[in-house]
Amino acid sequence: MHRVFEKTNVALTSLLLVAIVGTANAGGPVDEKLIIDGELEMITRTAAPEGHPLDEVISGWHYRTPETRALEADSFQNPGMLGVELGEEYWNKVEGTEGKSCASCHNDAASSMVGVGASYPKWHAPTSRPINVELQINQCRVNNMGAEEYAFDKSGQKPLTAYIKHQSYGKPVKLDLEEGDMKAWWEKGKELYYKRTGQLNLSCASCHEKNNGKYIRADHLSQGNVNGFPTYRLKQAGLISTHNRFRGCIRDTRAEFPKAFSDELMALELYVTWRGTGLSVETPGVRQ
Fold this sequence. Notes:
The chain is mainly alpha-helical. It has helices at residues 2-21, 66-73, 81-91, 102-106, 109-112, 116-119, 133-145, 157-166, 182-193, 204-208, 242-252, 263-275, and strands at residues 35-36, 40-41, 45-47, 56-58, 122-124, 129-131, 215-216, 219-220, 231-233, 238-240, 286-287.
């Protein structure tokens, strides 16, 4: 039985690699610039940070179809902006026993939240681990508003996260790996990035490092950078969070995926975010 499983595993992996390599010459990122509304030029290609396995980091925008790229370049047409607008409502929504909203403490997000989306995950000393924007929102809800935490991807979590990150629109991603024990978590995330899992025996690197620029079935593989998340996926007709996308990729390898905000996925988010250092925050990006 074990040998049958091994043969099946090898066969599935071989078929997938054929699907990728078979169209190796059909891909490659487009050589264009992303300029929002004809005014704000985004950094979508830049030199990789020291220690990066690639020479250049490239936004996933460059790997999408002309129609999808055009949607993101026009903020009026970008369907993800509806989520951002909804997030503003949650920013001003009073909840909890303290009778507060996000705005009660942070006032105008356009001023107070600038740079937040470009600098998370950050080290959180009370829990001795990195936290992302979603977890920071939950910390504020419990400690300052007397409200319940948002469940993963429920209620206002995605739109509020998108709204907060959108305040850093165009700002380059830059994490502080000198905080706390961030370097150890970075190493853990790197290990997970290259770890092969599931029946298909694939890692993040299998698609996004070794085969980026190529096609798998009808999808064009990008470098897998997360500078546009939460991002609007046309396939799912809605905003998709970073951990939702991670879990979807892991599921596609036919492996069991970890819980959202688990140590595994937080380490992976830290490492993958670092891989996109220097790219502009595009939230909400538009992807297929």
